[in-house]
Amino acid sequence: xxxxxxxxxxxxxxxxxxxxxxxxxxxxxxxxxxxxxxxxxxxxxxxxxxxxxxxxxxxxxxxxxxxxxxxxxxxxxxxxxxxxxxxxxxxxxxxxxxxxxxxxxxxxxxxxxxxxxxxxxxxxxxxxxxxxxxxxxxxxxxxxxxxxxxxxxxxxxxxxxxxxxxxxxxxxxxxxxxxxxxxxxxxxxxxxxxxxxxxxxxxxxxxxxxxxxxxxxxxxxxxxxxxxxxxxxxxxxxxxxxxxxxxxxxxxxxxxxxxxxxxxxxxxxxxxxxxxxxxxxxxxxxxxxxxxxxxxxxxxxxxxxxxxxxxxxxxxxxxxxxxx
Length: 324
Ligand code: EAX
Hints:
Elements: H1 3-18, E1 26-32, H2 39-54, E2 59-65, H3 69-78, E3 83-87, H4 110-118, H5 120-127, E4 135-149, E5 164-167, H6 171-179, E6 183-186, H7 192-197, E7 203-207, H8 208-213, E8 222-237, H9 239-243, H10 247-281, E9 285-287, H11 292-298, H12 300-309, H13 312-320
Parallel strand pairs: 1-2, 1-3, 5-6, 5-7, 8-9
Antiparallel strand pairs: 3-8, 4-7, 4-8
Helix pairs in contact: 2-10
Bound molecules: (2R,3R)-2,3,4-trihydroxybutanoic acid (EAX).
């Protein structure tokens, strides 16, 4: 081999050694919906910061945005990415036991949701992910969902009649909106803004942090504080990713997940506190006087169905759960 070629080959072979500190870093890729500067980004960044620090940078956590939550979960399942931060929107299509948390008017407030999700019930549902080739790591939060639309002020279910409302790809939510008289149109979040722009749908529903972070005020005029359903988020990982961690690193992993959960919930609280004012400032017409009792009673046939199709005893336990 001519000398020059041999030297070139040596340079190539030695390059990785010369390329920086001798640090064997393992990369973990996390995809999350929504901008980094959002409650969902906060969960991912909170995890990243804590996990890299706790493992002395033996791990590098790479964050990527992907607004198609179904696609993220599929990628975690087949292992092309390690983890996702997603709402429960499409999760019930993978882990049906999760659907119970998507039932409207189930949680009274955030404290109730946190207590159930972090307690024994939420933990037992996280365990059900294993049978579906996923690891349910920890619950995070999207927030209470509210309705927006481009047509009219909505104060009661009667105003919803005939409105085309984008829902998540979630059969519980779709059933709720059809029962309320709307025309539910399921699609991924990534398709939502074009659908609103083109008038394929008239409205959508999401928590305030999502509406604020994605400037949905630019495509929606009316917002009603319906708080019709609590929307959890969840960190889901590939079993291989978690299985490869040493026992000590697995502890760091859970500590980091809790840091992500806290950053996420703190951000939701802050966004919820200032969000209505912010959206009014951006020109939205926000209706606070919503006939919540009418929404609940209109949902009666759907509630009756969920008593049959979901775990009725568990629904009751969740509703009766007391927080002190
Ligand atoms: O996870 O799809 C949705 O409406 C979700 O609430 C949103 O992407 C945040």
